[in-house]
């Protein structure tokens, strides 16, 4: 929720349409677009909880882009993926909630 004296904005949660590994050591995630978003963040983790592990967050700078390919991953390993929208407003960054997670086993 974004609040100013004049307006209140809501960034609805993004949903993941697909998360697949079609190439070796890479995964591709596709999500639904949010019309109010300035861009998106994609995070990956080796644990479903996204805690107690290294979590990598990748940013997209385009509100029109709803796909991200992430490389340099470990082949044969299972990764969990989440996406959220962000909006830049008055030099502040506002985020939606993270999407539900999807699991992907990366090709060797």
Which terms would index this structure?
single chain; 108 residues; mainly beta; Immunoglobulin-like; five-stranded antiparallel beta sheet; three-stranded antiparallel beta sheet; 10 strands
What's this entry about, in short?
The protein has 108 residues and is an all-beta fold. The protein is built from no helices and 10 strands.
The tally of strands reads 10
Order of helices and strands: EEEEEEEEEE
CATH homologous superfamily label: Immunoglobulins
Radius of gyration: 15 Å
Overall SS class: mainly beta
Largest sheet: 5 strands, antiparallel
- Estimate nothing, just give the exact number of structural domains: 1
Q: What name does the CATH topology carry?
A: Immunoglobulin-like
* Shape-level CATH architecture: Sandwich
- What's the mean pLDDT score? 89
* pLDDT < 50 stretches: none
CATH class: Mainly Beta
Helix content: under 10%
Sheet-strand content, in percent, reads over 45%
Ends apart, CA distance between termini: 41 Å
Please tell me what the overall shape is. Answer: elongated
């Amino acid at each position: 929720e974004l609040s100013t004296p004049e307006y209140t904005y809501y960034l609805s949660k993004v949903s993941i349409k697909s998360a697949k590994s079609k190439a070796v050591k890479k995964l591709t995630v596709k999500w639904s677009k949010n019309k109010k978003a300035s861009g998106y963040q994609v995070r990956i983790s080796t644990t479903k909880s996204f805690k107690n592990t290294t979590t990598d967050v990748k940013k997209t700078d385009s509100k029109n882009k709803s796909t991200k390919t992430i490389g340099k991953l470990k082949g044969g390993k299972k990764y969990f993926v989440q996406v959220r929208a962000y909006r830049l407003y008055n030099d502040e960054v506002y985020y939606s909630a993270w999407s539900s997670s999807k699991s992907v086993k990366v090709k060797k």
